[in-house]
Specification:
Butyryl-CoA Dehydrogenase, subunit A, domain 2, disordered N terminus, 6 strands, Butyryl-Coa Dehydrogenase, subunit A, domain 1, 315 residues
């Protein structure tokens, strides 16, 4: 892959360069642990400052409709930003807040949440797990434990994908639980959290939404493919075999994203092809990467090779 191919998801929006420049001003502090930090290697305060700067350039509102203060962009447009952020790599809540949460909120007509996301007033995490009891929007409680909540500690709000006693998939909204704690993990660029719900009162957004959750998860996996591929170009920048595999995978991702934009649905077969080719790249990076490198390079290795335990498997 040549240098001029390192931006394989080009955008007509010149503001993208300003967005990345804004983030780079915060880069020196991003990997400097603050005193009493609960995440070794990551400065949570610098991460939030960097995210706020990105929100000021419209990153959080990429997918948010214009009437709610966002850009109303396509999935393909968001991939160009995912690529740029993952080559840094930036430990900001892009996937959870700017991709997954808006897709859910748009489908459910949650205009208030969409506005908060677009303005940067809310950082949102998405948790999968828990058991729902009760009826109605406000007469609902959730029990159980959730783990691997991407950017759970960084978030103000959590969207919880839980199940009822009848095994119906239910979407809930709640402020970040007081029981949330950061989990140790191999990828410092994607911090996760766990929490226990002991009869916690929540707002029920919708019930019986398996198709919606499935579609959102598929699109999230597509963005995750881009994050892995972008990080791989830094982690193994001189390895022609890795870069060749990245080029093949990028073609599959482009096709899947274009079809998703066209048909408003992420086709399973195309997504699986993109995921399989991305997995090949991840294995190559893990097998061929040897010895110490720069901090940035090592973080990109983490991002390229760590399993996506914070997303359910592709259905």
């Amino acid at each position: 892959m040549k240098n001029d191919d390192l931006r394989p998801f080009p955008s007509a929006d010149p503001a993208e360069f300003d967005i990345i420049d804004a983030l780079l001003t915060h880069l020196p502090a991003l990997w400097s642990p603050a005193e009493e930090s609960d995440a070794p290697g990551v400065n949570a305060f610098a991460v939030r400052d960097a995210w706020d700067a990105l929100c000021g350039h419209g990153i959080s509102g990429l997918l948010v409709p214009t009437e709610c203060g966002g850009q109303g962009a396509s999935l393909s447009r968001s991939l160009s930003v995912a690529w740029a952020l993952s080559r840094i790599p930036a430990p900001v809540p892009f996937l959870s807040t700017a991709i997954i949460a808006p897709l859910v909120a748009i489908a459910l007509g949650e205009r208030g949440l969409l506005t908060e996301i677009a303005t940067g007033d809310s950082v949102v995490a998405v948790a999968f797990g828990g058991r729902v009891e009760g009826d109605g929007e406000w007469d609902t409680v959730v029990h159980g434990e959730v783990t691997n909540v991407l950017h759970g500690i960084d978030a103000d709000r959590w969207l919880v994908v839980a199940r009822t006693a009848e095994d119906k998939v239910t979407l809930l909204a709640v402020d970040r639980p007081a029981s949330a704690v950061r989990e140790p993990g191999p990828d410092l660029t994607r911090p996760t959290a766990r929490a226990r719900f002991d009869g916690m009162s929540v707002r029920r957004l919708a019930e019986g939404v398996e198709p919606l959750v499935e579609e959102v998860v598929r699109r999230a996996h597509l963005v995750r493919c881009v994050e892995v591929l972008a990080a791989a170009t830094v982690a193994a920048s001189q390895d022609t075999a890795v870069l060749s595999a990245v080029s093949v995978a990028v073609t599959a991702v482009r096709s899947a994203a274009a079809a998703t934009d066209l048909h408003a649905r992420c086709e399973q077969s195309q997504l699986r092809l993109a995921c399989d080719r991305t997995a090949t790249v991840a294995r190559l990076v893990g097998d061929r990467r040897r010895g110490a490198g720069s901090l940035r390079s090592e973080r990109c290795v983490q991002r390229a090779t760590s399993a996506s335990r914070w997303l359910p498997p592709v259905a």
